[in-house]
Amino acid sequence: MPPKALSLTAALTISVLLAAENQQQAVLAAQRQWIEGYNHRDDAALKTIEAEDFRVVFGDGRVQTKADQMMNIRKAVPAGAKYEIAVETTDVYDKAAVLTGIVVEKGAFPDEKGVLQPFGQRSRYTDTWILQKGHWRVVSSHLSEFK
Question: Which fold has domain 3-145?
Fold first, then answer.
């Protein structure tokens, strides 16, 4: 292969790798915004990030839709309730991405005497995202609580 052809091939390969890395960073940024939307009870953020047909499936078989999520985000939450995530894998496939990791929910509920009692829950998650009109949107999530 002539040297110019090799450098063109190398440049194209580098360009593809950089684009993939940029998409990976973009979907991770969208996921962080989504989690912050939950933490700040920001229904506008959730409306933007969750696809219209979004569904979350829990380990016990329950299913929530985007409409369910919008109702839940308006409900009162336990004191200090907060979600934190630890991403384990981010796989981008052109206009789709699958993220897996651990999500931790923390907060405190008042006991019968009104004293706040801390709680925490750890779950494994798998989120499926699509690139739609230039923006990453989550279409499906599955959560299984650690026992």
Answer: Nuclear Transport Factor 2; Chain: A, (3.10.450)
- Domain spans in the chain, listed from the N-terminal domain onward: 3-145
CA distance linking residue 45 with residue 40, whole number of Å: 10
Q: How far apart are CA 109 and CA 113, in angstroms?
A: 11
Pairing verdict, β 63-65 and 96-110: unpaired
Phi, psi at 40, each rounded to 5°: -105, 10
Distance (Å, rounded) from C-alpha 147 to C-alpha 133?
Answer: 39
Q: Cα 31 from chain centroid?
A: 4
pTM for this model (two decimals) = 0.77
Three-state secondary-structure class, residue 75: coil
List pLDDT tens digits, range 13-29. Answer: 444 434 557 899 999 99
**What tens digit of pLDDT does each residue of 67-80 get?**
998 888 777 766 66
Could you tell me where the DSSP H helices lie in the chain?
Answer: 3-39, 43-49, 66-73
Cα separation, 12 vs 58, in Å, equals 42
